[in-house]
């Protein structure tokens, strides 16, 4: 049986990957998570009952912890989701991003390198280190064009710079030490279990509660949106069939401006809770979720447009997304509407949906 260390497995994409991998493989999953504000065991409530799942609360930047995990569980693969990931928070305080995203990746790479040195030649060839990264490492696009695997790196936020640094470390450990490593770079994920500081869950919860829907700048910033389960299917394909030393871009092909996203959310929330039945709106004398929209000062250094060319993973590994944006968003909004208790649990004492990322 394969044993996969899943770092950051109590976070948004990590928890969804745990769920997906349990359904699609017979692997044993060793979850390592620091349980920061964005990682919560409530996201793994059912998965932790599976005998194939073992959870360890630990910091990937702690060398002693990671050596102990590798020694005890003898992994055949590592999938690294562990990261500080919110751009706004990286503007307010970059230091956790440096520690987790760069130092943590370095510790994982070194621990993996020392681990496989003790394995047989066949086991070394079979081992995989998959590092999950972001399209933000590529910087900002103009009105046209797509990010490919050969696009030069040009990160513009502390978050993006920390992830770019980690990507370079992974490449270097493959080239220098022969570590069988793969990098995936994804576009903006959305779906269940996302901490409500990100655009889609924040707007959904604010709309349901009759709170303002703050839109940065003119709302014209463009992102390529990827349903989280589609991302997880791409990661698993890359882990199983990807070539060491390669990188694979995973994107949904769903470009939308932030304003388009908010407008669509307003329409979909109307389907689950009509504005006429929302007491929070009635008390404000509002008759439509659109009335909650407000434009606010833009984020410092806000990249204008991201879009991914996912033709490589489609052609080489046969990946195809299962969800178009409208279907994925409707499913996501329904999930947040039906899981308010999860939202309350993960937000409690950690975040009150306030504005972040204005800098010093």
What does this structure look like?
The chain is α/β, with parallel strands linked by helices. Helices cover 42% and strands 16% of the residues. It is built from 13 helices and 12 strands. It has helices spanning 12-24, 63-73, 87-92, 95-116, 121-126, 158-177, 199-208, 228-241, 258-272, 279-282, 311-317, 325-338, 340-347, and strands at 3-7, 28-33, 53-57, 77-80, 128-134, 181-186, 188-190, 213-216, 222-227, 247-250, 255-257, 293-296. The strands form 3 sheets. The protein has a 7-stranded parallel β-sheet with strand order 3-2-1-4-5-6-10, sandwiched between helices. β1, α1 (12-24) and β2 (28-33) form a beta-alpha-beta unit. It starts with a strand and ends in a 13-residue tail after the last helix. The relative contact order is 0.14.
């Amino acid at each position: 049986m394969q044993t996969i260390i899943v770092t950051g497995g109590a976070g948004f994409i990590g928890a969804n990957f745990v769920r997906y991998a349990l359904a699609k493989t017979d692997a044993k999953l060793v979850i390592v998570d620091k349980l920061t504000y964005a990682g919560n065991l409530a996201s793994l409530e059912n998965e932790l009952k599976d005998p194939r799942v073992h959870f360890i609360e630990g910091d990937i930047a702690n060398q002693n912890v990671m050596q102990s995990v590798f020694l005890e569980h003898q992994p055949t693969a590592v999938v690294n989701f562990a990261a500080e990931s919110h751009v706004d928070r990286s503007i307010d305080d970059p230091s956790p991003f440096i520690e987790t995203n760069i130092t943590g990746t370095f510790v994982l790479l070194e621990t993996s390198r020392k681990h496989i040195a003790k394995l047989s030649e066949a086991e070394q060839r079979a081992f995989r280190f998959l590092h999950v990264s972001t399209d933000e490492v590529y910087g900002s696009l103009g009105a046209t064009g797509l990010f490919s695997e050969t696009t030069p790196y040009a990160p513009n936020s502390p978050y993006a710079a920390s992830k770019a640094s980690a990507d370079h470390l992974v490449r270097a450990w493959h080239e220098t030490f022969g570590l069988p490593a793969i990098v995936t770079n994804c576009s903006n994920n959305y779906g269940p279990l996302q901490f409500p500081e990100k655009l889609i869950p924040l707007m959904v919860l604010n709309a349901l509660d009759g709170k303002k829907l703050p839109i940065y700048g003119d709302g014209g910033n463009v992102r390529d949106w990827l349903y989280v389960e589609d991302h997880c299917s791409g990661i698993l394909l890359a882990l199983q069939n990807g070539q060491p030393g390669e990188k694979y871009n995973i994107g949904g092909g769903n470009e939308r401006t932030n304003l388009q996203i908010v407008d669509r959310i307003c329409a979909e929330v109307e389907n689950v809770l009509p504005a006429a039945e929302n007491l929070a709106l009635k008390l404000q004398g509002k008759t439509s979720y659109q009335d909650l929209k407000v434009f606010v000062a833009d984020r410092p250094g806000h990249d204008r447009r991201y879009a991914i060319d996912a033709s490589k993973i489609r052609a080489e590994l046969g990946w195809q997304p299962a969800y178009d944006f409208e279907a994925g968003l409707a499913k996501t909004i329904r999930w947040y509407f039906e899981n308010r208790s999860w939202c309350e649990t993960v937000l409690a004492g950690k975040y009150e949906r306030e504005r972040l990322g204005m800098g010093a």
